[in-house]
Amino acid sequence: MTDATSILYGKVSAEEMSWIGSIMPLAALFGGMAGGPLIESLGRRTTIISTAVPFIVSFLLIALAVNVAMVMTGRAIAGFCVGIASLALPVYLGETVLPEVRGMLGLLPTTLGNIGILLCYVAGAYLDWSMLAFAGALIPVPFLICMFFIPETPRWYIGRNKHKKARKALQWLRGQNADISAEFDEIEKTNAESNKNEKTAGCSELFAKMYRRPLLISIGLMFFQQMSGINAVIFYTVKIFKEAGSTIDGNICTIIVGIVNFGSTFVATMLIDRLGRKVLLYISSIAMIATLGVLGLFFWAKERNIDVTAYGWIPLASFVIYVIGFSIGFGPIPWLMMGEILPAKIRGPAASLATSFNWSCTFIVTKTFVDLLALIGSSGTFWLFTGICAVGLVFVVLFVPETQGKSLEDIERNLTGGPKVPVRQCRRMSSIANLKPLPMAV
After folding, report:
1. How many CA atoms lie within 13 A of 163 on its CB side?
2. What is the rounded distance in angstroms from the CA atom of residue 15 to the CA atom of residue 284?
3. Mean pLDDT value across residues 364-374
4. 289 and 390 in contact (C-beta within 8 Å)?
5. Do 265 and 114 form a contact (C-beta atoms < 8 A)?
6. Residue 429 and residue 184: Cα distance in Å, rounded?
7. In contact, 437 and 147? CB cutoff 8 Å
8. What is the pLDDT of residue 107?
9. Are 303 and 379 within 8 A, CB to CB?
10. How far apart are CA 328 and CA 323, in angstroms?
11. 33 CB contacts (<8 Å, ≥6 apart)?
């Protein structure tokens, strides 16, 4: 332990540790609230760019911390930016990527995020927290540079009557030789219909009858994503393994969980445009229900002093399958579908509401997890999450639409009761081949 680390090591109370863990999602809640107005006023791209410098500052505060307040301030700034980014990125991708690959490319932020989690787990085994934070401060630098070379979304430009810039951005996104006439006309038509139906966009339109269904579906998916207990399980992985009496080192288990988390999200990117969103959500729900139920049974036996030494592998096996289940479905898909199903007219405030709701659920689960363990025991806690996942499965079956291969305009018409039109078909190869950077891109 280095001198910088020893300043705080051993001086953090259990309550302070709880707040260090939960202040990030609490701040992300407010970031989500701010993100909606920002992506509407500044644009999707500019909002994303604006998070880079605060991210760097947040990591430096943590790296240079000499007291708990500095760590918590750094975590709060990072959380606020995460709240903004978790809203802006799905909206940006949803508005720029073609339907044939929107699922695969829409999962990229989650996949790359899981790479970051895995790298953190591995590096954390060798670096103290201050050096790890210094490393984290370097990551936003290439992100900031690269973001300057991509355009704003054509839909945002059209919504601001900047049609020439919108056409130029769409042409860059689809490739210089691509015919964008049909797609551009469709975006303009949908924007005109939206302007005709509603005089103004904003928070007052959120709960209009025509927008109620997509908004409630997005909020419902966010609820079941977080109330599955994933963030509490990930944050307290080592603690849970210690309480389970597992014979496998807790830090090794954490790294294994990180590898599985990344690998399964990568698999999801390959499957989502083949199997569809709903099939992956079904698989995800069933896997989480089964594994959380088994974990509850394991802890139930342990709480009754039943010898489970021979079954010390069960917590790790259950965790691995649970993380696989979450990562292929309920982890990335609610964010992807938020960018797909929210109507263009209310996309900013609705995405803000859904994101804030998600992070409020994250805060509640993370902050109360230890209290739940004390109140109803480990078995009761895992069985509670099992029940929530079961209700989530029913929700998906009854209410969640399939969006695979559909344009945003088609999805919006179907969910808001607009006039039905044939689904626009696009060539898969051009979808992928035209995702080229500008010549000077990094």
Report:
1. 10
2. 33
3. 82
4. yes
5. yes
6. 19
7. no
8. 76
9. yes
10. 9
11. 83, 352, 356
